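Journal club side-thread
Mid-discussion, someone asked how the predicted structure for our own chain would compare to the paper's figures. Pasting it here so we can look after the session.
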Amino acid sequence: MSIQVSFTSMQPKTAAEPVVRFSDAAAARVRVLTEENSNPALKLRVFVSGGGCSGFQYGFEFDENVNDGDIVIENGGATMLVDAMSMQYLNGAEVDFVEGLEGSRFVINNPNASATCGCGASFSV
C-alpha cells in the first residue's frame, strides 16, 4: 500500500499511515513533558536543517502550533509534527526516545542517512 501526501494545500496534513514513525517511547516522553509543563497543546516538532558535522542536522522543539503543510503524526495522545521540507529527509525514519549512559534524548533512526556523526545529531544523504 502506498501513501500519497500532497504539500500544496494550505491545510495541515494527517498521515493515515505515518511516513515517519513516532515510537511508543518517544510518544510517552512527549506526554510526560506536556504534563510537566501543564500544557496539553504542546507537540514535538522534528525538523532537518543545514549544518552539523555531516551536512544536515536534526532538530527537536516543542510547539503549540500546527503550520501549513505540516505532517501531523499521533501516538497514544501525543503529537509529532514534521514540516514538508524536512519530510524529504525523514521519510521512512523513526523518531525514538532513549535513555542510556549518554543521558536521555530523542533520536532519529534514519534509513536515508548515508553517514552520521558520532553523536547521531547530524547526517548526510
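Post-session note: The two ends are 25 Å apart (CA to CA).
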